[in-house]
Structure formats: structure tokens, C-alpha cells
Amino acid sequence: MPTLQTNCKDGKRLTYPRIAEKALVEKKTVERFIREGKAVDRDIAYAICQALELEITDVVDPNEWNYHQPSKPLITTTAVIDTTLPPVDKWQGRQEEMNQLKNALTNDNIRLIGIIAAGGYGKTALAVKVIEHLTVNLRVFWVNFNQPYPLAQFGRWLLEQLNQPYDEKWDEDTLILQMIQRLIAEPSLLVLNNLETVLTAEGDSVYQQFLRTWLSKGRNSTV
Predict the structure, then answer these.
(1) Which sequence spans correspond to the domains of the chain?
(2) Where is average pLDDT lowest: 29-38, 92-101, 161-170?
(3) Beta carbons within 10 angstroms of residue 176's beta carbon
(4) Cβ contact 144:198 at 8 Å
(5) What tens digit of pLDDT does each residue of 120-170 get?
(6) Is the CB of residue 209 less than 8 Å from the CB of residue 176?
(7) What average pLDDT is seen over the chain?
(8) What is the CA radius of gyration of the chain?
(9) What is the CATH number of domain 16-76?
(10) The pTM is what?
């Protein structure tokens, strides 16, 4: 890898957090790519090189790259995973729905829970309130799908939270199985808010594959 410039055009020093901010990726990903020399997703590598004001072929062998610049803005594929729990300022009632969800979370036979309603009915607020009053011993991971995160990005983030190394060479099937194995090994509640962003009416998205595989193989955790 070539020697990198230490400052941007705006005069700010190129630290790992600064590069991550400019590339819209996580700092760990920048460190893995630059310091450790490990492979990352193509769009992410491209975004980091843009942040460094380098051509991708300055970093990666042109014969191995064979890259076509994506037609969509990079933010749709490289945005940092949003894990912010939405605030709920006003709340009343909904005790029946909360009890149903709490009972489902304590039922060992239920591994997948869906809250379905039209927009504006308070699905997110209900999930937040249930988490605030959670009594079962589960690690809680909350993801807002405000961007259509690629499965590779979401899976890498989840495995990092569960202290599982991620291999960039994994295909989607292998990644899904690794995610499920870690969720089985470490009881957790994985909340996927606005998941419809990455689901398709045809039922063939990789996230639907993840949910189907979780239903057939998952245990100990709840999605």
C-alpha cells in the first residue's frame, strides 16, 4: 500500500476516525483495510480511497480489482450502521400489546417476532417500551434500517458485537450461518427496526433468507 498523506485539503489530520467520517464507514473497517491490510467490501474500499483522495488502483492491484463504479450514491451501501434507540417522549396504554411481546420473549418456542401495522401506529415506540421494561436476561442489539445496508455490512457489524471474527471471503450463505451460530451461542434480542427497507415483495432478498434460516435453525436468541 502506498504512503498516505497525513492531511486533507481542508487541513485536518487524516486520523482513522477522520477517514471513517469522510468515507461514511466504521473506524474498525478503516483500520482493518489500512493498518491490517485486510480485504473489505468493494464499495467500502472505494469509499475509503475516495476519503484518502487516492485512486483505487493506487491501493489495489488493477488486475485483481476489475471494479465498476456503482451507479447509486455510496451512502446507500456504506453508511454507518444506525444503532440509536429512538426516543419515546409520550406514551400511554398499549399494555395488552406489551404483555403479548413480553410473553413471547419468555417463550422458548418463539424465536422470531414481527410487529406489523401501517405507518404511524407506533411500532417502533412499542418495541422501545418493551425493551425498557425487559425482564429476561438478553443482550439487546437495535438496528435502524434507515439505509438499505448490504447483508455483508450488517453481518460484519453483528459479528463484531458478538466478538466473532469476520472473513471477507465468506459468501452470503456462510455469513448467515455464522450470524446464526453466534446468536445461538450468546442469548440476545436482535431488533431490526424498519426492516421493510431491505425486504422485497417477491420474497427473495438475502434478509428474508436470513430470517428463514433463523426460523429453521435458530434458538436461545430472539429476532
Answers:
(1) 16-76, 95-217
(2) 29-38
(3) 22
(4) no
(5) 777 888 888 888 877 777 889 999 988 888 888 899 999 999 888 888 888
(6) yes
(7) 76
(8) 20
(9) 1.10.260
(10) 0.64
